């Protein structure tokens, strides 16, 4: 991403924080940056592409090396590793919880079927990355059970997260931990 794309993204996120994601206007973002709308279009095809960038950033945050270091992370139990990895995603999203929730709502609008299928594939990819970052390497039916269970855990936590008004997202953390504990991880 070039510098201008980063500035466009940051300005769009600031606009969404101030006015809501549904009220985001790309022409206002361009005007605020003093650039032609065509420069926004060159870097982001639409607001959905800006949302996709936000989710890429959350994925990168989730995949960052653990704060405690790999030497301390690796010996944790599988459920602890999976929870830690997933919690990184929610922690990164927490400052913009409302905007992230609104991005997902817009992508799920009934009039936007073109965004539904990519969301399913992106969720699947996210869970594959969770398994890799959490060092979950089983195959076959066990892998499928892990993927289904981790997907369900993420979605349960996400549903809580979108409405979690607690300062530290404590309710989301409890739901995530409980849901991951029910997943048959090995």
Please give a handful of descriptors for the protein shown.
10 helices; mainly alpha; single chain; 186 residues
What is the averaged pLDDT score? 95
Strand content: under 5%
Which bin fits the share of residues in helices? Answer: over 70%
Count of beta strands: 0
What is shown here, in short?
This protein is mainly alpha-helical and 186 residues long. It has helices at residues 3-19, 26-33, 37-43, 47-63, 70-73, 78-93, 97-107, 113-133, 140-161, 170-181.
SSE layout and pairing:
Elements: H1 3-19, H2 26-33, H3 37-43, H4 47-63, H5 70-73, H6 78-93, H7 97-107, H8 113-133, H9 140-161, H10 170-181
Structure characterization notes:
The chain has 186 residues and is mainly alpha-helical. The chain is built from ten helices and no strands. Helix 1 (3-19) packs across helix 2 and helix 4 runs antiparallel to helix 6 (78-93). It is elongated.
